[in-house]
Amino acid sequence: MRDYPLGDPMTVSLMMFQISAVQRQIEETLASIIAFLPNLVVAIIILIVGWLLGRFLGRVVAEVLDRIGVDDAVRKTSISNRPEPVSSG
Questions:
Q1: 3-state class percentages of the chain: helix first, strand second, coil last, to nearest 5
Q2: Angstrom distances, CA of residue 50 to CA of 20, 24, 39, 53, 58
Q3: How far are the Cα atoms of 11, 42, 43, 49 from residue 57, in angstroms, in the given order?
Q4: What is the Cα–Cα distance from 35 to 22, expressed in whole angstroms?
Q5: Is 69 left (phi over 0), alpha (psi -120 to 50) or beta?
Q6: pTM above 0.70, yes or no
Q7: What is the mean pLDDT of residues 33-50?
């Protein structure tokens, strides 16, 4: 029987196949993650732009409503005289 320095050639070849299969799986996973990153960046940008736009439009609407006197008009109606709801907490 021959003595191989790295072990039985069949065992070594099986180990190399398993290593290459794991390496291929890791490469595919990394490729998927890298392919997803642009979508994530775009989603974050859209979220930030939407948040900033919402804050801006909220201030604009509040200013317009304040200038036309909606608060005063509501105070003069029965809506403002309605009792506050009782919290259950």
A1: 75, 0, 25
A2: 45, 39, 16, 5, 12
A3: 68, 22, 21, 12
A4: 20
A5: left
A6: no
A7: 96
User: b or e along 52-82 (b: 16 or more beta carbons within 10 Å of the residue's beta carbon)?
Assistant: eeeeeeeeeeeeeeeeeeeeeeeeeeeeeee
* Phi, psi at 84, each rounded to 5°: -70, 145
DSSP 67: H
pLDDT tens per residue across span 49-70: 999 999 999 999 999 999 998 8
Least confident of 13-17, 19-23, 39-43: 13-17
